[in-house]
Design a protein that fits this description.
The structure is a homodimer of 243-residue chains. The first copy, chain A, has five helices and twelve strands. Helices cover 34% and strands 28% of the residues of chain A.
Chain lengths: 243, 243
């Protein structure tokens, strides 16, 4: 599995993804699931992927190849006139890759599906955050639903639902994501460090702070260990129940 | 869906189940998923069910009917010589019901599967806690895996993993289960109050404290609202991250 979260804040976007992929429990590898493109001053794009690794790698490779050989008839990620058009391009590429893999050759028991979170900004319109489905269609984050999760989403959801605040600053948002990832990693073998972090500040039009968070990262260790204690203290602070 | 948890403590067993059943999102009902049997001084049994409601109701009805017409060749829940034999009886009944429903008549898109948590004590041996699979086989809780969850298990797992302590008293265990259920209910429409609670104290051989917890229950409200605040305070108490 995988765990990726894209958060929309008043001041920008924050993305975090894990790196574990597995085909069964006896074939585990580390792959980066976060991909970025930018034209400084003009556009900054972040894509996170969950699902079949062959599918997501093919999608990213096709998007990259198109960037190298742009044509008027085929817009590319680097030339699409808006985030909406860029999301459409990714969705179509994803759908085509799945259709090709699923429709020909030997059949596999596993599906070739993948789901993606895509966010960023193209000059001239505000930042956008999308979730793209294997069918190629997509939905956009809004004030009422200000974040998307893909992959192993359930363990890390309760803290997101409760502690998310659109006005939070980036440092606090990263802390929130670390807690959400820590809850997931502790409960599920199929998600693990290192994590990739990318911050995008509204209207900056270049990728902002990014970081690879290893298991030994001091901030990560402090959050992971601190959260266990804080959670136990929070639990202790609840009123007792008379049986 | 459903959410049920059975906890094994040093001093006994604690069971909690929700009551929401749904066939799609437009057909939602309240059904008790916790069933108990006892022969005071001799045995106390608790069964919680998740999965196809027709299957679980049929299993419980068959178990009850057998109790009314016992025979030497067919042991019943009230005469099985051990918890192991009682679990076997439930497992066989479950497997037979699923096989009957799945093998005949019109085919349904939904499966007829169900999973169950079964615990209690029969005089002469220690209390036991089992998870019973649709195939009829089952596993027993041990010191390393001291609780079972069925249904919508992921949202409520992180707090169980972190705050469970085999030495905790019943009041604290109930508080822990309430937090775990609250996390699940807030994140998922398919689990909801009222909740059923049953406590069994080792070697008492009669069912102990039980309670139906409505949404308006003062303890439940205190935990549910207190947990939001406590969680936010816990989050605030974590060290800040420098980006």
């Amino acid at each position: 599995m995988t765990y990726c979260v894209g958060l929309q804040l008043d001041r920008g976007l924050v993305f975090m993804s894990d790196t574990r992929t597995n085909a069964g429990v006896d074939n585990i590898s580390t792959y980066r699931k976060m991909h970025t493109w930018e034209v400084p001053g003009e556009r900054s794009l972040v894509l996170m992927t969950a699902g079949n690794l062959a599918t997501t790698q093919a999608v990213v490779s096709l998007l990259d190849e198109r960037n190298l050989a742009p044509s008027d008839r085929n817009p590319t990620l680097l030339t699409a006139p808006s985030m909406f058009q860029a999301a459409r391009l990714i969705g179509e590429t994803l759908r085509d890759v799945i259709a090709t893999q699923a429709g020909t050759g030997p059949k596999a028991a596993a599906t070739f599906n993948a789901t993606m979170i895509f966010g960023g900004q193209v000059k001239g319109s505000p930042p956008r955050l999308y979730m793209i489905y294997p069918e190629g269609n997509f939905i956009e984050a809004q004030r009422d639903t200000p974040f998307f999760q893909i992959g192993e989403t359930k363990y890390g959801r309760p803290i997101l639902v409760r502690a998310y605040d659109p006005e939070m600053d980036f440092a606090r948002a990263v802390k929130l994501l670390m807690v959400s990832f820590d809850s997931t990693i502790r409960a599920n073998l199929s998600v693990d460090t290192p994590l990739d972090l990318q911050v995008y500040e509204n209207d900056r039009l270049e990728l902002g702070y990014s970081r690879r968070i290893e298991n030994t990262d001091p901030d990560w260790r402090a959050i992971s260990e601190g959260w266990s204690d804080a959670l136990r203290r929070a639990f202790d602070s609840l009123p007792d129940i008379a049986l």
